[in-house]
Design a protein that fits this description.
By secondary structure, the chain is mainly alpha-helical. About 60% of the residues lie in helices and about 5% in strands. Strands 1-2 form a two-stranded antiparallel ribbon. The radius of gyration is 17 Å and the shape is globular. This is MerR family transcriptional regulator. Pfam families: MerR_1.
């Protein structure tokens, strides 16, 4: 089996990249940053926001609450305050399971086995 290079894992994402992930305007991400204390991207010398994967998971949770489930911003803030640690552990677990599923699919594909 040929050597497969590891993918380079990106550590920081621009606000434009994050906005594209969620199909929203960058201004919405900036707005949520002001409304939710949990979003704290690093800023470079020019003041550009640099989001980590952890920041993106927090935004994903806010997106689910506000855009998918229809919570108001105040309602979403209350949910986050009540369940902050539990929720982010759950989000991290789901993300890890998606990574494992992708890895297993890659193994299956290299073995040329068709899915059931």
């Amino acid at each position: 089996m040929p050597y497969k290079e590891r993918e380079i894992e990106k550590k920081y994402f621009s606000i434009g990249e994050v906005a594209t992930m969620f199909k929203v305007a960058p201004s919405l991400i900036r707005y949520w940053e002001g409304e939710f204390d949990i979003i704290n991207p690093k800023k470079d010398k020019k003041g550009n926001r640099r989001f980590t994967k952890e920041d993106i998971e927090k935004i994903r949770y806010i997106y689910q609450l506000v855009k998918v489930k229809g919570f108001t911003l105040q309602g979403a803030q209350e949910v986050i305050k009540k369940e902050q640690n539990h929720v982010f552990d759950k989000v991290a677990t789901i993300d890890k399971l998606h990574q494992i599923k992708k890895f297993l699919a890659e193994i299956r594909d290299t073995m040329h086995v068709k899915p059931e």
